[in-house]
Design a protein that fits this description.
Elements: E1 5-11, H1 18-31, E2 36-39, E3 42-44, E4 48-50, E5 56-58, H2 59-67, E6 79-83, E7 88-93, E8 96-102, H3 103-127, E9 130-134, H4 152-158, E10 162-167, H5 173-182, H6 186-189, E11 192-200, H7 204-218, E12 222-227, E13 247-248, E14 260-265, E15 270-271, H8 277-280, E16 285-290, E17 301-304, E18 306-307, H9 310-319, H10 322-331, E19 336-339, H11 341-345, E20 349-352, E21 361-364, E22 371-382, E23 385-388, E24 391-394, E25 396-405, E26 412-414, E27 419-420, E28 422-423, E29 427-430, E30 432-433, H12 439-453, H13 465-483, H14 486-495
Parallel strand pairs: 1-9, 1-10, 2-9, 3-6, 10-11, 11-12, 14-16, 14-17, 17-19, 19-29, 20-22
Antiparallel strand pairs: 4-5, 6-7, 7-8, 13-16, 15-18, 20-21, 22-25, 23-24, 23-26, 25-30, 26-27, 28-29
Helix pairs in contact: 1-2, 1-13, 3-4, 5-7
Pfam family, one: GATase_3
Protein name: Cobyric acid synthase
InterPro entries: Class_I_gatase-like (IPR029062), CobQ/CobB/MinD/ParA_Nub-bd_dom (IPR002586), CobQ_GATase1 (IPR033949), CobQ_N (IPR047045), CobQ_synth (IPR004459), GATase_3 (IPR011698), P-loop_NTPase (IPR027417)
Length: about 500
Amino acid sequence: MVTAGALLVAGTTSDAGKSVLVAGICRWLHRRGVDVAPFKAQNMSNNSVVCADGGEIGRAQALQAAACGLAPSVGFNPVLLKPGSDRTSQVVVRGVVDGTVSAASYRERKAALLEVVTSSLASLREQHEVVICEGAGSPAEINLRSTDIANMGLARAADLPVIVVGDIDRGGVLAHLFGTLAVLEPADQALVAGWVVNKFRGDPALLEPGLEQLRALTGRPTLGVVPWRPELWLDAEDSLGHVADGVVGRPATPVGRDWLRVAVVRLPRVSNGTDVDALAAEPGVAVRYVTEPSRLADADLVVLPGSKATVADLAWLRAQGLADGVLAHARAGRPVLGVCGGYQMLARRIHDPHGVEAAPGTAEGLGLLDVEVTFDVAKHLGTPTGTALGESVAFYEIHHGRELRGAVAPLVTLGDGTPEGADGGHVLGTHAHGLLENDALRRRLLARAAAAAGRDFTPAPATSYAATRAAQLDLLGDLVETHLDTDALEALIAKGAPPGLPEVRVSSS
């Protein structure tokens, strides 16, 4: 059994399966009694969570921590980039905001950040028997290699063995794997020890000759072929990465006669879109992302999710005609829920005196809640508890907005009595992320929506979101145990990349 060591899981592309493979390896090791922790040096995502130690990290690392039986910690993701536009990102270092950068200016910070990530990894390795690291994007981005801190730059600095995962669903996976290795410099190649093929569907016998040729060409084995499992959809790092044809999850048959239809507006800069995963986990609840007004017409509940650029996304909402659809839905007495940025859009006005999002100014909200929002420079992070709709709740907050409510009642009352959010009857808003993961609260909200819509819908009393997530983590662990060469995996973690791996070059002849 593995007792000490580390491994880096890289990918041929973004969304190749790095996050889920790391979670699966972590779950497999944890179930065997290994003290294991996850690590991602640099993440780019607007899907984040707040840790008990006060900072925020990518949600994928929180899921991986759960696979290890650990609470989220800023040590698992020391650098987080949160895109606010196509050209700029907020930088979060060890859980705390540390400025805004462009792509060019961020490269200038990489040398200092390499020390941050290597020291964070070293600290984790002192605290845990095994650390499973996740790369970012692809190590084949050779234009970025000189300042890389998350892929081969990290592997070289910490002497980590590397396995590379490729998504066969994209096509050309053998070329992707070979090409990823071939463009690397020799010292980087020496750490790449094997391959994993992800999302395989079909006859394995047809793939096997290609894997044998890949081994002959590279001198490296394929450690496993992981089959496609459509039931794996929770907590995607990219908040829309798990959405197929607009549909979230694989909902079970309703308890009552009717389905409850939820339309989630797919904002251009959506953040923490996984808040609606808990709704999709309920039997009889069909959750769909929408981008056009017609898709709101037959919805029983409309959700405006979080946004990293609330005012810009509100302008987009109006330009697409979706704002009129939301207003019509609410004026007909049908439920609307806004979360974080979506909540701010439901307010009367949004004030940004310090230019937190863009130029200083005030924007008119949709006016569905008697609330005004002002952006503060400081970001509010917290993991409070309280009550909502008569139920005990726990959640987390990540926002710059400060609310000033008028006559509207709060949706949440914190443990110290502080009101939060707004309950306007059929229009509700909150800054609370993860609120819908509270099972009793979620059932009350769905029952209210069903009553307003006249649906014969009964929330399933036994649904546990935590159990649903745990079952998916166990499935990931099962896939690793069943479909990967775990003996080879253990050897890599404990001993590192084997010496003498051949260098691969692309012939110029």
